[in-house]
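Quick start: what a row looks like.
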Amino acid sequence: MVSISFNSEDYHDLNTFFASLGLIWFVALWTIWLLGTWAALRPRSPLSSATRTAVPGVSILRPLKGLDTNLYENLESTFIQEYPNFEILLCVAEEDDQALPLVRELIAKYPNVNAKVLIGQENVGVNPKVNNLMGGYRSAANDILWVLDSNVTVHSGTLARAVDALQAPTKSGKRVALVHHVPFAFSTESRVGSRIDEAFLNTNHAKMYLAINTVAIESCVVGKSNLYRRSDLERVNGSLKPITSTEPNAKQDGLCGLPAFGRFLAEDNMIASALWHELGLRHDLSCDVARNVVGNMSLRDYVQRRIRWIRVRKNMVFAATLVEPFTESIVLVAIGSSSLKYFFGLPRWLCILVHFFMLLIVDLDVYTSLAGHPLPQSIKWEFLAGWVAREMLALPIFMLAIFGNTVEWRGRQYRVLSNGEVQHVSNHRSFFDSSKFLGWYRRQYQALETQPVSP
């Protein structure tokens, strides 16, 4: 029998190793956060495409279902784009959709804008958004497509700047295949879930999203607002395997184009990844933001939404998803404060206090950069309460999400498969299903759900 013993020097070496690893991770994450904060400062570029007489045509595709919050203003923002050559294709699945009267009112208000309504859907997969978009995708008159969610409003110069970015040369020499925008949330409701989601998207999510896209070593795209060429999309199928043929129109075997992505729940991320990996092309992040209108969102809605996308990511990039808890502020400060105490003798309480004070300053700076103005006094305390709640809920939500593969989206249940695809399933619950745990959160915050958040 072999016996293994450790002396005090061995323990010291082991402690030093883990403390060093923790300090490196702490510094690395703060570097990433500061990079994202710096990237948020980019000013808007001039509208060169808007001033030219000959510009490429763009087909704007907007999938609609029901009366989203702020829908009239969201859709109107596409009618007033400062760009001389575009069409708007408004896609609805049903003839009795509540959005249709509002859409027709906008078309009548802007008779000089080339806009049309497309009613009906084509069943190409389990993703209802892709099915809804198929009519617009097939009838689009232009190669450049701008897919814009119905709950997003944009600046009037967004399209012109996005086209400029799509056509701009890159330092790597690889052509830009997709232009996207940072989601910036604003809430029209003083609900707990709405304020937490607003705080999440405008701080933690924004600075990480900006930092990853600034480094640009991997595809990282949210599909609130994406501009790409249909001719590029027709060459990929989501297999993420490089196309080996040198022919410019070479395709992968099997279904290609938008129909190929109907099998994914996160079709936006998969389209971006396919353009990156299959064609070897790149993305660009425009200086504009996609103003994502957050409506009446309860705490349960927020938790379910976060669980849904964590579970989707888990089945697409498992290793990266497992690292996520270590990027959250509470876990990170626990690691960092322990390492700083070990090497420098700094009190843990002081490290924690400085960490969260600096984090709040950084996050408010990111908000200011993206919004174009400081945090309004009218929502100051609600936003800060949402920020604190987001930080506290991050780890519990992750633990709920990591166990289980079923998600709920638009009232339907889906099972996420290992390759990121989804399949529709009848309502069921397993031991680790999140709905079993959400009742506790709902009861704890029931009082907050019925009234605005107060300081």
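That is the whole record. Residues 153 and 201 are 15 Å apart (CA to CA). The first strand starts at residue 58 and ends at 64.
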